[in-house]
TrEMBL record:
Binds 1 zinc ion per subunit. This is ATP-dependent zinc metalloprotease FtsH. The active site is at residue 478. It comes from Ramlibacter tataouinensis (strain ATCC BAA-407 / DSM 14655 / LMG 21543 / TTB310). Its EC number is 3.4.24.-. Its main location: membrane. Homohexamer. ATP binds at residues 255-262. One of its GO terms (molecular function) is ATP hydrolysis activity. SMART domains: AAA. Its cofactor is Zn(2+).
Length: 672
């Protein structure tokens, strides 16, 4: 246990009485404050909850209540009797009788002459001068308890009501300041409640259950190679410091979600054999100002005590955004204070201490420039999505503990999952294993992986009852996509076609490229648009009418055509001018901030005309090719209506068409 977790107790000078509440408040002042709190609590409760006041009844009424068995206990002091009724009795007080100008009467007195009576379970009365000596026997016969002490009203509940709130406040006060004394020097409200402490999770490399090495990381070899030097420095720092050099203070991991940034950071710690402190950036910030900075200080303090060590801050953009924006809490927001503390801490240690800060983000463009300057995050490592070979390696890592059938082809699965991250591939293996278990299989087969892939991409099957006419129209729609994927040069090969409703789609045609590609020719993009419009074109060729089933196809085609005009300069009329913000390559969203169009209305009209020209030309080409291959389309539709789902080999056999001449590209998912 480190010093921040078990702070040393402060020494007390000889002859000084220790203060259990800490050194923030002297004992005499604390006792005076407590006494004042008790007094205020008692007076306030007496004012707000005065309790049940006894009523004064005549002696004759008292005897009648005893005879009726309604008196449970009494206490006598001289000629005064105080007692308690079983059932509350309504009777005016002496003041009310005096105000009415009437003498006390028994229960039959005329209530109309008196003020509103009071009801109470407690009473008092006065013994007359001719005191009846047989009263004691009379009381005992009727089961009345004669007490030697005054009768308490309310008992324990009254005591808790009068003094309970004060006791709770004092107890909270004592607990709060004891927590402050144990807070490791974190002051303010954060120290009192312990929320100024770091919530970082510590992973020790010595624990085999938690140790992760580079053998557990696959598919990101380039990023792994960048971090080998960091591991070497943590293992042998003297090798680099003997010539005056210092290790990088910080390494920023940049990549799409699920690419393995956190796993890579743990692998660095596991390879180096040093403690690993992991914390999300969102855990620094609380509603109390100053807590984030306190947690940053405590985190770096723990790391220094365990050096050499690695600090990993996930999603650092939550606190590392560029300063200068408008904050609801004022100019110096909690996020900015936390960021400034991180900047200070990273300046406060040298590379010789053996502490390296790793951070991960999906949006490097929004980070503060001071965070990215040399001396803080010296290196930036981009963790890209895995390529085909990387996906196959990742699949092999995740199927280590999964029994596989003999027909499983991981290379084919890797080829069928372009754009999948490591987390997506792990989910694919898990879904396939669950599906095989649901089918009572002894091992996971290749079909289980394909069905799991369809479920992940398109969603689970929906048990819709479609009419024969709707099923036929959906089959022609998906058949149009599939036929164009076979006859249009440059189109991606058709991997699977189905008319089983899944998710929001009534059918789907899944196309995949032969290899990964990072540069797209204009011919390939036009081939994709032609394939997207194949469903609408097939409906028009066969039925001569249109349906709403092409909504998603039209949306994708429009976005692709607009990007060709506004981003990639593929329109001679518009030219090579950027008219749209680039996308965040790690999140797939626009990096620019929305606002007014950075071009004139004439340019906007020209862009719209060019987008319409591209889409219209691709639509006409789709109709022409479907008319030419109408027999193959009809044969494919008959097979779909019979089997509902066809694989690539079955599609080629049914249509009799060879695969289209290939222009390697990116995956295409189309659905109605």
């Amino acid at each position: 246990m480190n010093a921040s977790q078990n702070p040393a107790k402060p020494t007390v000078p000889p002859g000084t009485k220790p203060n259990p509440l800490g050194s923030r408040l002297p004992p005499r002042k604390a006792l005076g404050l407590f006494a004042l709190l008790f007094l205020v609590n008692y007076l306030l409760m007496r004012f707000l909850f005065p309790g049940e006041q006894p009523v004064t009844v005549p002696y004759t009424e008292f005897r009648q209540q005893v005879a009726a068995g309604n008196v449970t206990a009494l206490y006598s002091r001289g000629t005064t009797i105080e007692g308690r009724f079983k059932q509350p009795v309504t009777w005016p007080t002496p003041e009310e009788v005096k105000q009415a100008g009437q003498p006390p009467r028994p229960t039959t007195l005329d209530r109309r002459l008196l003020p509103p009576p009071r009801t109470s379970a407690y009473f008092n009365t006065e013994l007359p001068a001719f005191f009846d000596r047989g009263l004691e026997d009379f009381l005992i016969r009727h089961g009345v308890e004669i007490s030697a002490v005054p009768i308490q009203q309310g008992g324990l509940w009254t005591t808790l009501l009068y003094f309970g709130p004060a006791l709770l406040i004092i107890g909270f006060y004592v607990w709060m300041y004891r927590r402050a004394a144990q807070g490791g020097g974190v002051g303010g409200m954060g120290g009192m409640f312990g929320i100024g402490r770091s919530k970082a999770k510590r992973y020790d490399a010595g624990d085999p259950a938690n140790r992760i090495t580079f053998n557990d990381v696959a598919g990101i070899d380039e990023a792994e190679a960048e971090l080998v030097e960091i591991v070497d420095f943590l293992k042998a720092p003297d090798k680099y410091t003997r010539l005056g050099g210092t290790a990088p203070k910080g390494v920023l991991l940049i990549g799409s979600p699920g690419t393995g940034k956190t796993l890579l950071a743990k692998a660095v710690a596991g390879e180096a054999g040093v403690p690993f402190f992991s914390m999300s950036a969102a855990e620094f910030v609380e509603m109390i100002v100053g807590v984030g900075a306190a947690r940053v200080r405590d985190l770096f303090k723990q790391a220094r005590e365990s050096a050499p060590a690695i600090i990993f801050i996930d999603e650092i953009d939550a606190i590392g955004r560029a300063r200068g924006g408008i904050a609801f809490g004022g100019g110096h927001s909690e996020q900015e204070q936390t960021l400034q503390q991180i900047l200070t801490e990273m300046d406060g240690f040298s590379g010789r201490e053996g502490i390296i800060v790793l951070a991960a983000t999906n949006t490097p463009d929004v980070l503060d420039r001071a965070l990215l300057r040399p001396g803080r995050f010296d290196r930036r490592v981009v963790v890209n999505l895995p390529d085909k070979a990387g996906r196959e390696a990742i699949l092999r890592v995740h199927v280590r503990k999964v029994p596989l059938a003999g027909d499983v082809r991981l290379e084919e699965l890797a080829q069928a999952t372009p754009g999948f991250s490591g987390a997506d591939l792990q989910n694919l293996v898990n879904e396939a294993a669950l599906l095989a278990a649901r089918r009572n299989e002894a091992a996971v087969a290749h079909k289980d992986f394909l069905d799991a892939l369809e479920k992940i991409v398109l969603g689970p099957e929906r048990p819709l009852l479609l009419s024969p006419q709707d099923r036929e129209r959906i089959a022609y729609h998906e058949g149009g996509h599939a036929i164009l994927g076979l006859v249009v040069p440059g189109a991606d090969p058709v991997h699977r076609v189905s008319i089983v409703p899944r998710g929001q789609a009534l059918g789907v045609t899944y196309q995949r490229p032969q290899t990964d590609r990072y540069n797209y020719p204009e011919a390939y993009l036009r081939a994709r648009i032609i394939g997207m419009l194949g469903g609408r074109a097939a409906e028009e060729v066969v039925y001569g009418t249109r349906t709403t089933g092409a909504e998603n196809d039209i949306e994708q085609a429009t976005q692709l055509a607009r990007s060709m005009v506004t981003r990639w300069g593929m329109s001679d009329a518009v030219g090579m001018v950027q008219l749209a913000p680039r996308e965040n390559r790690f999140l797939g969203t626009a990096a620019g901030v929305g606002g007014d169009k950075p071009f004139s209305e004439q340019t906007a009209a020209l862009v719209d005309a060019e987008v319409q020209r591209i889409i219209q030309g691709c639509h006409e080409e789709a109709q022409r090719r479907l008319r030419e291959h109408r027999p193959a389309l009809d044969a494919l539709v008959r097979a779909l209506l019979n089997q509902e789902t066809l694989s690539e080999e079955e599609i080629l056999r049914v249509t009799g068409l060879p695969p289209a001449p290939q222009l390697e590209g990116a995956p295409l998912r189309q659905g109605t």
